[in-house]
């Protein structure tokens, strides 16, 4: 008899909506925890390898030397924005739909504010039709999951390339790599490849639900049942990928010697020469032109800029003096980047300290 009364003042429409609010609120918390674990792995490795210099890339070409820690922290801040987006998604899910019934509310004297308090919601819907037809909070979660996936995919791609023999910047731990079925020498970065591949699912789930909802009239329609598969899959996928990638980062072997060796002959100090000339009074465009000519000359000789003699450098500009070699040094180049957000050690140490404070908050 009590069971026959449970449906009084309720509909499957607002009950299912309530369940999805409760579910996504819980899962957002879990995603945040796993994001924090990945961020912690990045910060720990950044602190561990502070001072290691690597080539920075633009257009996937060697550009300028940067600290390896600075590179890792770039991904920390990507995932920090993801955490902030998930936190916003939590706010959007913080609305109680119960009490809307099918779409018009109910004649029974319900107290949704009281129920909201019991279930941990701080707000109720202002409109009963909106309450049962709103799936924006699920779309926002799917968007967050897709962006997290995109960031994980970018990091995975760099780890895949960086662990190849051509780079050898890192080596994956055996727990996160596999061998070949026929080639005994292979060590495949399968976890990173799977993370990169599963990002397509996360993006597809977002598009799928957007397409389902784009033509629906108010209020509830059975089409909305399609939200479950997309949301459940994205929740499972993003959580698994975050956990696995945190393991990859925390266990991989870093090869500082190989990073430094890769910069020999890449002319990533050419900008330092241009900056040196500009500080001597030469207009930067002219300094850029001189540095370019020096690079062309060094390439013909099979040497790097810093390997050229002073007389060779002076043949391109008479304002070059012995102190130019103070600029043509990887560590010095890094330390001179003191602008906010730059790659000098002090800045990176400040980033790490700020990141740790965020993780402990």
Give the topology, please.
Layout: H1 2-5, H2 12-48, E1 53-58, E2 61-67, H3 68-93, H4 112-119, H5 128-133, H6 136-162, E3 170-171, H7 190-213, H8 227-251, E4 253-254, H9 256-261, H10 270-279, H11 284-301, H12 310-314, H13 324-327, H14 330-335, H15 345-360
Antiparallel strand pairs: 1-2, 3-4
Helix pairs in contact: 2-3, 2-8, 2-15, 3-6, 3-15, 6-7, 6-8, 7-8, 10-11
Instruction: Report mean pLDDT, rounded to a whole number.
Output: 96
Q: Determine the strand fraction and express it as a percent band.
A: under 5%
Strand order of the largest sheet: 1-2
Name the helicity range: 55-70%
Shape: elongated
Largest sheet: 2 strands, antiparallel
Order of helices and strands: HHEEHHHHEHHEHHHHHHH
Which spans of ≥5 residues are poorly predicted at pLDDT below 50? none
Task: Please tally the helical runs, counting DSSP H or I stretches of 4 or more residues.
Answer: 15
Q: What class, by secondary structure content? A: mainly alpha
- Using only C-alpha atoms, the radius of gyration works out to 28 Å
Distance between the termini: 49 Å
The total count of strands amounts to: 4
């Amino acid at each position: 008899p009590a069971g026959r009364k449970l449906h009084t003042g309720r509909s499957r429409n607002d009950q299912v909506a309530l369940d999805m609010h409760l579910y996504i609120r819980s899962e957002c918390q879990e995603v945040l925890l796993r994001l924090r674990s990945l961020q912690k792995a990045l910060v720990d490795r950044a602190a561990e390898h502070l001072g290691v210099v690597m080539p920075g890339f633009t257009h996937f070409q060697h550009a300028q030397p940067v600290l390896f820690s600075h590179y890792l922290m770039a991904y920390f801040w990507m995932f920090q924005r993801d955490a902030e987006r998930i936190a916003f998604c939590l706010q959007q899910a913080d609305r109680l739909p119960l009490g809307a019934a099918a779409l018009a509310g109910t004649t029974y004297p319900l107290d949704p504010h009281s129920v909201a308090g019991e279930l941990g919601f701080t707000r109720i819907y202002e409109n009963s039709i909106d309450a049962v037809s709103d799936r924006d909070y699920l779309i926002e979660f799917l968007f967050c999951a897709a962006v997290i996936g995109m960031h994980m995919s970018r990091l995975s791609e760099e780890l895949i390339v960086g662990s190849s023999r051509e780079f050898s910047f890192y080596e994956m731990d055996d727990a996160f790599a596999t061998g070949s079925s026929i080639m005994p020498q292979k060590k495949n970065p399968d976890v990173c490849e799977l993370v990169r591949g599963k990002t397509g699912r996360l993006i597809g789930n977002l598009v799928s639900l957007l397409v389902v909802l784009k033509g629906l009239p108010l209020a509830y329609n059975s089409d909305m049942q399609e939200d479950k598969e997309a949301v459940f899959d994205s929740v499972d996928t993003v959580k698994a990928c975050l956990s696995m990638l945190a393991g990859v980062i925390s266990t991989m072997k870093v090869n500082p010697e190989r990073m430094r060796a890769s910069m020999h002959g890449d002319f990533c100090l050419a900008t330092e020469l241009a900056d040196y000339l500009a500080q001597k009074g030469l207009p930067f465009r002219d300094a850029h032109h001189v540095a370019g000519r020096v690079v062309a000359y060094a390439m013909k000789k099979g040497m790097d800029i810093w390997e050229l003699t002073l007389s060779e450098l002076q043949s391109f500009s008479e304002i070059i003096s012995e102190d130019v070699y103070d600029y043509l040094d990887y560590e010095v180049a890094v330390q001179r980047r003191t602008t906010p957000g730059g790659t000098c050690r002090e800045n990176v140490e400040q980033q790490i300290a700020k990141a740790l404070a965020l993780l402990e908050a």
